[in-house]
Structures are given as structure tokens and as C-alpha cells.
Design brief:
- It contains two helices and six strands.
- With 110 residues, the chain is of the alpha+beta class.
- Strand 5 and strand 6 form a beta hairpin.
- The radius of gyration is 28 Å and the shape is rod-shaped.
Length: 110
């Protein structure tokens, strides 16, 4: 046993490094999951090739009144309070501001 300790000590070092990396693994996994679910782009490495983990979110719409960034499904601008969704006079479907035609019935909007 004593001879094995003196001759095979490098194996103990590699086992210790592996145990240390394995101990850090759960926190790294939770960090990646948090980044992916919170929308922050993360890149993974697979066989030396970087792969985009989370697609970038599309930019939100712009308020036609004040030009502030708004979410795509907002009904009112959070900066100026302007009404963002209007209703088609022909079919009553909601239409986005700046639209020239209704996407449901095709009626011209003024």
C-alpha cells in the first residue's frame, strides 16, 4: 500500500480535480438555466463549435406618438399613454397602429 501511494499519487491529484469540478457542476447548470429562462443570450461550446443557446428576442414595437420602445402586445404606451391598438371599423378586430389595412377583413383604415 505504501509503495502504491508513492508511485500512484498523480492519480489522486486527477481524482481530486475531478471531484472539485463535479462539486461546481450544479451551480453552473443552474446559472445556464437561469440565463436561458431570463432571456439573456448564452453560448455553449459543443465539440469546439460555439452554438447560440437562446435566440435573441425580437425588438419591441415603437410608439407612433412619442417613439418610445413598447412591448409587442401593449395596449397603451408606458411613456406617453397613447392608445396603441385600435379596432377595425368593419369587423371589430384589433389592428396595430400605423396599419393601412385590417389584417382580418382587408378593409382600408384611415
Amino acid at each position: 500500500g505504501a509503495v502504491g501511494i508513492f508511485l500512484l499519487w498523480p492519480l489522486a491529484v486527477t481524482a481530486g480535480i475531478g471531484a472539485y469540478k463535479q462539486k461546481k457542476l450544479p451551480s453552473e447548470i443552474f446559472e445556464v438555466v437561469y440565463r436561458c429562462t431570463m432571456g439573456e443570450p448564452t453560448s455553449f461550446r459543443t465539440a469546439g463549435v460555439p452554438v447560440n443557446a437562446a435566440p435573441t428576442a425580437p425588438a419591441g414595437a415603437v410608439c407612433p406618438q412619442c417613439g418610445a420602445q413598447i412591448s409587442a402586445n401593449a395596449r397603451f404606451c408606458s411613456a406617453c399613454g397613447a392608445k396603441l391598438q385600435t379596432v377595425c371599423p368593419g369587423c371589430g378586430a384589433p389592428v396595430k397602429p400605423g396599419s393601412k389595412f385590417c389584417s382580418e377583413c382587408g378593409q382600408a383604415l384611415s
